[in-house]
Amino acid sequence: MAESTKLNYIDNGDDTVSDTKHGIMWMKNDTWLALGRLITWHYSLELARKKNEQKFAGHDNWRIPSASEAKLQFDSETSNTDIKGGESHIQPGVPHG
Fold it and tell me: CB count, 10 Å around CB of 36?
């Protein structure tokens, strides 16, 4: 039997989700949902620094994911529309709202 390619997320109840397949924790809301706008790479670094100062969800080691970690979210069978109307193959985590 082939290993499932679907990811398994658990809502941690603190605005984070855990990807149990890969052992990675993500912030539940991306910057578009949290701030209502897209941000630059440099502002992303600053946002991670601020989250660390705040000890967001009890952690002080937030960072931008590496390219290989971000690729773990890719799912060729999933199709979502991004905020600019483009097709995205990012598997949604825990539903927002």
Answer: 7
Nearest to 73 by CA among 21, 15, 13, 11: 21
Q: How far is CA 88 from the centre of its chain?
A: 14
Give the whole-angstrom CA distance, residue 42 versus residue 71: 21
Half-sphere exposure of 86 (CA within 13 A, CB side): 4
Please tell me what DSSP assigns to residue 66: P
| Per-residue pLDDT tens over the stretch 33-87 | 788 888 899 999 999 999 999 999 999 999 998 888 888 877 777 776 766 777 7
Which residues lie closer than 8 Å to 8 by C-beta, 6 or more apart? 19, 20, 21
